[in-house]
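User: Hello, can you help with two protein structures?

Assistant: Certainly.
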Amino acid sequence: MELFANNLIETILIIGVILLIVEVVVLGFSTFFLTFTGLAAIATAIIMWAGLIPETYAWTMISIAVFTAVFAALLWTKLAKLQNTVDYRRADSDLVGHSFVLPENVEAALPMKEKPKYQFSGISWYLNAHEDLVKGTLVEVVKADVGSLLIRAKKA
């Protein structure tokens, strides 16, 4: 404990950096409390180092509490907007555009579980199409969903 008391500024700085790392790396920037507290600890260490407040546990706690509230008030709306940004675009798939010859007939009207499967890249994919396709047709993948491929006859 004496080591922390003799090196309070460095200890508070290290704690602040660790809180920020945990927030970003472990929690994926999902909660802001550790961000605000980490920034407050770093700010407290800096103003203690500058000699603006005394190096005591009481002043440390007060300063971290005040700075946490200030950072929360200043940054909450900006960080919340950052978190609410959602990209609705579909992720590109390497499967889209892949061509192969149909191993069996594909009937568009069948339920998904009754459709034929195609083994590719170690995974069995259900084959789905908007129109009926016959065995031996050269097809290409139009869209890849979880466990299923939407295919169509490839145009020459």
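That covers the first. Now for the second protein you mentioned:
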Amino acid sequence: MPWSWLCQSTGFAPLRGVTRSGAGGFITMILEHADIRIDPAQAAAFEEAIQRGATTVIANAQGFQGYKVNRSIESPGRYILMIYWDTLEDHTVGFRQSPAFADWRAIVGAFFAQPPVVEHLELVSKS
């Protein structure tokens, strides 16, 4: 299945494209899911900072495929950051253990009301 179809069907806008398939014909990549809480009064500044940090820092990391940020409607100050990586290690080792991670945190870290809850997911099924 072409990468462009996944982007169109999910609203996900990649900065880099791939056309690879894994088991079941799904595109093989890892989804980083970060649940971020901030002071709602800082929403506009945070939204600018997270976009700047993602496009100028994270986007340069090896294995980065794209990102998406969603703001909660029911819970002001709650955001979900989704980053697509080629492999788990591209995020946990290549990015998190690099100087770029400190650069990223310097841009967005002051906004965090608590440490983000981060999990990694792999695709099982989709429509």
